[in-house]
Design a protein that fits this description.
alpha+beta; Jelly Rolls; 10 helices; 20% strand; Tscrpt_reg_AraC-type_HTH; AraC-like DNA-binding protein; transcription regulation; HTH-like; transcription
């Protein structure tokens, strides 16, 4: 017997949960699982069986407790459109904003800090598709969400949203750890530097940078010092100053705009730091470069 169970969602309270579905398939179903965009933040956990699917143009073999996480624009399905025997569960979240060129905003329901939401979105996009192996906590958390939605006990809305936050944090942490296990630190550091340069205006913390490479803050700080000779924040400042120097040479942007573009909270902070590291104020540096040219 094939069975699909949809959890009833109170629309007014959980408009951010688009779908919560369990599928138990005891016979092969033809033309039932095409490769297509699934929409939303789509989290699928395999419970039973073996599935060979195309996920964002790549072929994957999935086993029980493997998890797939898709961004709203990404595809998943069977290359033959066939749904094999087995079972799985998926949860689809509808964020307020999440597009390839726009930062992730989950919505007012989430207690995750907005800076962490933006980082989460970047990690999801950078590591797409996210295929996580042996992450049974995902099904456990989704099961708890289902129970809260069925029982409707005191503060169930608060609890469901807390569980959703926990689910997303668990996924991002696992992705970072899994990526770190697959590559050496030089590769991880190169990926981090690329992300830093692309988002210099983000108020990066050591904890956020450590998350990108899948390490705790202490281990990350030690590795960065050994690898670069700088603490993580000093390394970040050097990148910011290098980009500021480039913009001073090559653009007509105001000092305030350059300061904000490169992650300094004020033009005064920018000027003080710039002079400390280069020996010149930003204005003096620009004049010297213009004069040299």
């Amino acid at each position: 017997m094939n069975k699909t169970t949809l959890t009833h969602l109170p629309s007014s309270e959980f408009s951010h949960i688009r779908e919560l579905v369990r599928v138990k398939n005891q016979t092969v179903k033809l033309n039932d699982w095409p490769v297509q965009v699934r929409g939303g933040i789509y989290i699928l956990c395999v419970l039973e069986g073996k599935y060979e699917w195309i996920i964002e143009h790549q072929r994957y073999v999935l086993y029980p407790n493997d998890v797939v996480v898709l961004c709203p624009w990404q595809q998943l399905g069977s290359p033959t459109n066939t749904l094999e025997i087995g079972s799985f569960v998926w949860l689809k979240l509808e964020p307020t904003i999440f597009e390839p060129t726009k930062e992730l905003q989950l919505g007012s329901w989430s207690a995750i800090h907005e800076n962490e939401q933006r980082l989460m979105g970047r990690l999801m996009g950078t590591h797409a598709p996210m295929v996580l192996n042996q992450l049974k906590q995902v099904n456990e958390l989704i099961t708890k969400i289902e129970q809260e939605l069925k029982q409707l006990e005191f503060a169930y809305q608060t609890r469901v949203n807390q569980l959703l936050d926990e689910l997303l944090v668990t996924i991002v942490r696992q992705q970072s750890q899994q990526q770190n296990q697959r590559r050496d630190f030089s590769q991880a550091f190169e990926q981090l530097e690329k992300m830093l340069r692309q988002s210099l205006d983000h108020p990066w913390t050591v904890e956020e940078m450590a998350t990108v490479v899948g390490l705790g803050s202490t281990a990350f700080t030690e590795k960065v010092k050994a690898y670069s000779g700088f603490s993580p924040l000093n390394y970040l400042i050097n990148i910011r100053i290098a980009e500021a120097m480039r913009q001073l040479r090559q653009t007509d942007k105001s000092l305030t705009d350059i300061a904000l573009d490169t992650g300094f909270y004020s033009s005064q902070h920018f000027s003080t730091t710039f002079k400390k590291l280069t020996g010149y104020t930003p204005g003096h540096y620009r004049k010297r470069q213009t004069g040299d040219n």
